[in-house]
Amino acid sequence: MSVDQSQEGRREESAGAPVLELRDVAVHFGGVKAVDGVTLKLEPGLIYGIIGPNGSGKTTLIGAITRLTQLTRGDLLFDGQDYTGVRPDKLVHLGVARTFQTVRLLPDLDVQANIQVGADARTGRGGSGSAAPRGDLLSRVKGMAGIGTTPPSPPVAAAIARTGLNGFESYYPTELSYGTQRRVEIARAMAMEPRLLLLDEPTAGMNQAERAEISGLLRDMRSEGELCQLLVEHDVQMMIDTCDYVFAMNTGKLIAEGEPREVVQNPLVQEAYLGRKFREHA
Ligand SMILES: Nc1ncnc2c1ncn2[C@@H]1O[C@H](COP(=O)(O)OP(=O)(O)O)[C@@H](O)[C@H]1O
Ligand SMILES: [Mg+2]
Questions:
Q1: Is residue 1 pLDDT above 50, yes or no?
Q2: Are strands 228-232 and 253-258 parallel, antiparallel or unpaired?
Q3: How far apart are CA 119 and CA 95, in angstroms?
Q4: Cα(162)–Cα(154) distance, rounded to whole angstroms?
Q5: Residue nearest to atom 25 of ligand 1 (CA)
Q6: Which has the minimum average pLDDT: 16-20, 108-112, 120-124, 143-147?
Q7: What angle do helix axes 178-190 and 154-162 make, rounded to 10 degrees?
Q8: How many CB atoms lie under 10 A from the CB of residue 18?
Q9: Which of 25, 27, 28, 29 to mutate to test the pocket of ligand 1 (most atoms within 8 A of CB)?
């Protein structure tokens, strides 16, 4: 990064700069333009949503932001600083955390120890420093004697309180409902003390009541502090209930953005969903 760019970054920051900025980001897989020229800005303290029919590029865009997916072109900026070349396992130090489309808790660790994995990723104590802990951390963490019975570290205690998991510390994932497992996954990400939290379909496979519960949790987390959340969902009602601002994607491009209810009523967005339904029924 040049001196000019970093000075510009600081100027933007003092003017209430976006936490995340994408400039003409594209990800092509051979001939498939999964993401094709996305430009957007996210500000702190708000919940953003990305909607769009299956295959519209939502997960690929999250992969690009979290550096798991190679960009074909474009720039990614965090706090005005270009981070396009940063490795995914270093993103947690920038302040980026994510949850995945499927629950990925460590089954042999209790709730508190699973959340501690997030805190350790932030401090580097857990070894890999990855924002997405893998199974190879398991033996290391298990080796830490009696971790579930010791009082939680401050970031873990804060994450437990913030996600409403008090009383669940010594439960194992298999003993919990799917909705509570998802809550633990969000708590693990929050233990990384992120400034940007990316959630890919956090309510996939949930019933209406569980969805409302997760929606309420995300709204509660919004009301505290400067956390920016970016949520991917195809449940449109969940997005209206949860998000402050929504982007709509179709075939790798943004086709609308703004207040959730307006975006959902946008004819281009309705056509994107309907067009797909028509094709499926053709
Ligand atoms: N690793 C990959 N290799 C090839 N094509 C991919 C890959 N990942 C996604 N795609 C394609 O990119 C498009 C967007 O996929 P995806 O980002 O998963 O959409 P969404 O999350 O909105 O359902 C789809 O056509 C999908 O088949
Ligand atoms: Mg997806």
A1: no
A2: unpaired
A3: 12
A4: 12
A5: 55
A6: 143-147
A7: 140
A8: 18
A9: 29
CA gap 255, 207 in Å, rounded = 29
| Strand 47-51 to 228-232 pairing | parallel
Q: Give the tokens for residue 160.
A: 């437990």
| Residue matched to tokens 């804060």 | 158
From the list 217, 254, 282, the residue with the least C-alpha distance to 51 is 254
Q: Does residue 69 line the site of ligand 1, with CB under 6 A?
A: no
SS3 24: strand
Phi, psi (rounded to 5 degrees) for 228: -100, 130
Q: What residues pack around ion ligand 2 (CB closer than 5 A)?
A: 58-59
242 closest CA partner among 51, 38, 52, 40: 51
CA within 13 Å, CB half, 167:
3
Q: How confident is the model at residue 236 (pLDDT cuts 50, 70, 90)?
A: confident
Tokens 């209406």 correspond to what residue? Answer: 208
CB 242 within 8 A of CB 219: yes
Ligand 1 neighbourhood includes 173 CB (under 6 angstroms): no
Tell the burial category of 266 from Cβ atoms under 10 Å away from its Cβ (0-12, 13-18, 19+): middle
